[in-house]
Design brief:
132 residues, five-stranded antiparallel β-sheet, Thiol Ester Dehydrase, Chain A, alpha+beta
Amino acid sequence: MTDEKKRERMRNAAIRVTMMPRDTNHHGTIFGGIVLSYIDVAGGVEAVRHTGHDRFVTVAMKEIIFHEPVFVGDLVSFYAETLKVGNTSITIRVVVEAERFGSRGQIVRVTEAEVVFVAINQNREKIPIRLT
C-alpha cells in the first residue's frame, strides 16, 4: 500500500457518532468510557478491513490520551490505522476528532489510543491472521 493510500485510509473514518445527552457525566461532558467503547469499535472495524478476518477480541488498550473534552452534539470521528500485524494479533492506532456542535468547521483532536486485538475462531481460540 502506498503512503498516499495509507493517508487516504487514515482520513476515512472507521465510524462517526453524534454525542447525545445520555452519554454525559455530572460535568456535562461525555464519559471517557463512552469514547473508549467507540475506540474499541473503530479499531475492530480497521482490523477487519485490513485483514479480511471477521472475528477479533480486544486484549489491550494502551497509550490512551485524552486531549480535550467531548460535548453533547459534537460529531465525533474515529480514524483508525493499522500499526502492526503479528501472527495472531493486530495493533491499531485510533485518533478521535470532534467537530464542535454549533461551530461549523471547528475540529479538535480529543483522544487517541493504541488497541491490540487477537484473531479468534468461532470457538474463541486464537488463530493466525491471514492477510487478504
